[in-house]
Amino acid sequence: MTDAGRGLYAVTTGPDGALWFTLAHSGQIGRMVPGEGPTMYQLDPAGQPTIIVTGPDGALWFTESRAHRIGRITTDGATTRFPVPSRNGGPYGIAPGPDGALWFTEMNADRIGRITTDGRTTDFPLPVTGAYPSAITAGADGGMWFTMNQANAIGRIDTDGTVTMYPLPTKAAAPVGITAGPDGAVWFVEIAAGQIGRITPGGTIDEFPLPDRAGRPHAITSTDGGDLWFTEWGGNRVGSITTDGKVEVHDLPTPCSEPHGITLGPDGALWTALETGALARIVTTGR
Fold this sequence. Notes:
Helix content: under 10%
Strand order of the largest sheet: 1-2-3-4
Number of strands: 27
Shape: globular
């Protein structure tokens, strides 16, 4: 679909029945309807668009980690960008919240930010430095949950800005991707420990080791079937886990394809973004 140098990174399903994805190295946003060719929208070549999600206003919202901005792109390609509150904040994760706004992480600033759909931003400091907050998701309990990659913890922030931290049982696990599960818990990946984690609204944590602890799990998403699916960036695999912790992994057909983001597509299949420059379609068969 594209060359590896463009840095295909994250993928999500838009409100228009298309897949939307980021090209971090070339500073582009892409759109593709399954079965058709892609359309590319050029942004700041050095901006590094990273995570992309559908917002509550029917547009796509994304982070620009190097340009320190939050971006908005309509389904017809019109873009607007907003600077984050902290200078050199390094926004990474972004997700719609229960309050009609979007919430994002600022990796370099140890802050969680909030942006309204008309572009007004605020942010909230974390109670620790060097935490490197990464991915973020809305939990079933009304809070926003996020990974703290270097603090080795999962964080939760209320819509009023109150932050709670939950240390992980495994040292130096380095959590990254996170998603709300179908069971009311939040699920996350531990890239350095080779594990999938689960945390309840009350803060109870379970960890499930992968068959290959060196697989470097990166992103995770829920599906309509009740399982969660994740990518193994270092293991060239995608995998699934049930809510009771049963893991299956599947090798990708192209060696060293480096899967990053993963999403449930508009066609009912899973799609993952390969850093080598392709979107891979995964048809699930159930267990």
